[in-house]
Design brief:
By secondary structure, the chain is of the alpha+beta class. It has 2 domains: 156 residues, Gcn5-related N-acetyltransferase (GNAT) (Aminopeptidase), CATH 3.40.630; 114 residues, Gcn5-related N-acetyltransferase (GNAT) (Aminopeptidase, 3-Layer(aba) Sandwich), CATH 3.40.630.30. Helices cover 35% and strands 27% of the residues. It is built from 11 helices and 12 strands. Strands 1, 2, 3, 4, 5, 6, 7, 8, 9, 10, 11 and 12 form a 12-stranded mixed beta sheet that branches. Helix 2 crosses helix 3 and helix 7 runs antiparallel to helix 8. The two termini are 37 Å apart. The relative contact order is 0.14. The C terminus is likely disordered. Bound molecules: coenzyme A (COA). Coenzyme A binds next to strand 3, helix 4, strand 5 and helix 5. Its EC number is 2.3.1.-.
């Protein structure tokens, strides 16, 4: 265990979060997996604010390499201040130092929380007003809004009847089955080629759950679709995808339904579709509705580079 970790453990982060935001569960095991086991985890970016030895605030950052070979991006992955210590510039001082360290590691921009593939939120939850104001005040600009959607698992799913769904897939020669540990190599290879490294990472996490938390579709011996849950957070669904050629066959609905049924069997009362992409698909075909809205924000710190690009966004 390094010094930084010894000074700030995930157990302390979990306790701080529980005090800071009692409405959202963020247990130690989630923080360990999302932050400490992040392949880019850098303990020199784990910062603590203490008062009389007590942890009153913390910020965690990470640097992600640019897949295109450019300068990396920096992310704030976690930030919380204990309620009794708010509005005393604790977060400001933590972020001053974290941004300074990120810049010293050569990042060209700093973003808040959307540190895919290992992230806690797809951005700043817009209901966290203080956090939104804090980042705005520090010069972070809005890039986009992202959404989580929810599906009530205590009620019958708003999907076509099972017989209809399965007959259509049988006619197309498509088999849907639960992921198996031995799928890791070939599925991982297909995921990387077809869907990129972020989703490949998230599917890998779900595949290693016991039992694997997801389903895949095979046609003529080839992977053509997948859906997973419990990858990012317990009860969070996604990612999921169907190869373009097979879209419109009902396969996407079947993959979602299989996951939602599995989640209900494991005792979940709700599925949170994380960072939902095709929102109308989830709403119309599965009765999902928007549950959380996140602002993705960014501060460009590499001014020279930005000027050279004529101010165009990256
Ligand atoms: C967001 C949070 C970390 C801010 O911590 P803090 O130590 O109180 O923040 P600071 O004192 O450094 O505030 C700096 C600036 O942020 C803005 N700000 C902070 N809290 C605010 C509030 N309640 N309303 C409006 N603006 C606020 C202000 O501009 C403030 O400057 P000012 O006090 O001079 O007006 C804290 O409220 C918190 O822990 N919230 C819950 C966790 C959270 O939302 N984390 C982000 C996860 S998405």
């Amino acid at each position: 265990m390094s010094d930084a970790q010894a000074q700030l453990g995930v157990d302390q982060l979990a306790a701080l979060w529980e005090e800071a935001v009692p409405g959202e569960r963020l247990p130690e095991e989630v923080l360990r997996e999302r932050l400490l086991e992040d392949p880019d985890c850098d303990l020199s970016l784990w910062l603590a604010a203490r008062h009389g030895g007590r942890l009153v605030g913390a910020a965690v950052g990470v640097v992600r390499p640019d897949p295109a070979g450019g300068k990396p991006a920096g992310y704030v992955q976690f930030l919380a201040v204990a309620p009794a210590f708010r509005r005393q510039k604790v977060a400001s001082r933590l972020l001053d130092e974290l941004e300074r360290r990120l810049v010293s590691k050569g990042v060209r921009a700093i973003r808040a929380f959307d540190s895919a593939p290992s992230y806690l939120w797809p951005g700043i939850d817009v209901q966290f007003t203080p956090a939104l104001c804090l980042f705005e005040r520090r010069g972070y600009a809005l890039r986009s809004y992202e959404f989580n959607m929810k599906v009530d698992l205590t009620r019958p799913l708003a999907a076509p009847p099972e017989k209809e769904r399965r007959e259509a897939l049988e006619r197309a020669g498509i088999a849907v089955r639960r992921l198996r540990p031995e799928d890791e190599a070939s599925l991982g290879d297909w995921m990387l080629r077809t869907w990129g490294p972020h989703w490949a990472y998230e599917v890998g996490v779900a595949l290693r759950r016991q039992p694997p938390a997801g389903f895949a579709a095979v046609q003529d011996g080839q992977w053509i679709g997948f859906a997973v849950y419990d990858s990012g957070r317990p009860g969070w669904f996604g990612p999921m995808g169907v190869e373009p050629r097979w879209q419109g066959t009902g396969l996407g609905i079947e993959l979602c339904v299989r996951c939602f049924e599995d989640m209900a069997q494991r005792g979940y009362t709700e599925a949170q579709i994380a960072w939902a992409g095709p929102r109308c698909f989830y709403a119309r075909k599965l009765g999902a509705s928007i549950s959380r809205v996140f602002a993705r924000v960014e501060k460009v710190v590499d001014v020279a580079d930005e000027e050279q690009r004529g101010g165009r966004p990256a």
